């Protein structure tokens, strides 16, 4: 089964907090919500516990997005340490809230060779996973395929991390893949290539346990400029949904379009129309 949901509280939610958001997601006929800790993890444990209960009652699948201020490849030790802490805090509170995975943008190349950056990111993520395992926290750690060429996070890099470090799986952001390849992830043949790479690298299991980000996107030669609604982008989202259907993928699709829930509903509607065939 493929679940469709929103990046944060839907814009049509009358109550502007996570609990209101979860209830609104259910009302809209969606199935998932990503808790957005993008400006920092400020949620307390009591609230996380309450969110856990409400999401179970409403049958809404939860995931979380860590802070933007993360760089596991900074030349400043303090920045790396703070980044590790932010990822750990996201993982701990998300687990309390009943979240199944966390995602984040892992690092910047900062002019360094990609192989060296990979080594640094892998080392720090391994450390994070060891700490979480000691704490008995088995939440999936899902570094994201990023949208700017200056950011670590090609599909290959994220697949390799998932092969080499336990408890790590990709968050496949199709809009970012399209932006960082200057439009090479917008048609069916591209989606096929992406899904084939995932299956070759990580086996059928990954197609049965996907986490996807999607929105429209504007980009330049350097990659991502801004998220747009799907209709205003060059991504053939009807074919994208068809590829998901053809590969029978399972997991969670999170809409990060500016109109959040409307594109989530649009994708779910297209998906269900294929299911009926
Ligand atoms: Zn993201």
Concise overview:
By secondary structure, the chain is of the alpha/beta class. The chain is built from ten helices and ten strands. The protein has one domain: TIM Barrel (Alpha-Beta Barrel), CATH 3.20.20.
Verbal overview:
The protein contains 10 helices and 10 strands. It is α/β, with parallel strands linked by helices and 277 residues long. It has a single domain (2-275), classed as Divalent-metal-dependent TIM barrel enzymes (TIM Barrel, Alpha-Beta Barrel), CATH 3.20.20.150. Zinc ion binds at residues 65, 105, 144.
Please name the defining characteristics of this protein.
single chain; 277 residues; alpha/beta; TIM Barrel; 8-stranded parallel sheet; two-stranded antiparallel sheet; 10 strands; binds zinc ion
**Architecture in CATH?**
Alpha-Beta Barrel
Number of domains: 1
Say what oligomer this is. single chain
What portion of residues is helical? 40-55%
The total beta strand count reads 10
Bound ions, cofactors and other small molecules, one mention each: zinc ion
Give the N-terminus to C-terminus distance in angstroms.
Answer: 16 Å
Strand coverage percent: 15-25%
- The order of strands across the largest sheet is 5-4-3-2-1-10-7-6
Major sheet: 8 strands, parallel
Please write the CATH class name: Alpha Beta
Cα-atom Rg, whole angstroms?
Answer: 18 Å
Shape: globular
CATH superfamily: Divalent-metal-dependent TIM barrel enzymes
Number of helices: 10
Average pLDDT number? 97
Q: What letter string, H or E per element, gives the SSE order?
A: EHEHEHEHEHEHHHEEEHEH
At the third CATH level, what is the topology name?
TIM Barrel
Low-confidence stretches: none
Give the structural class. alpha/beta
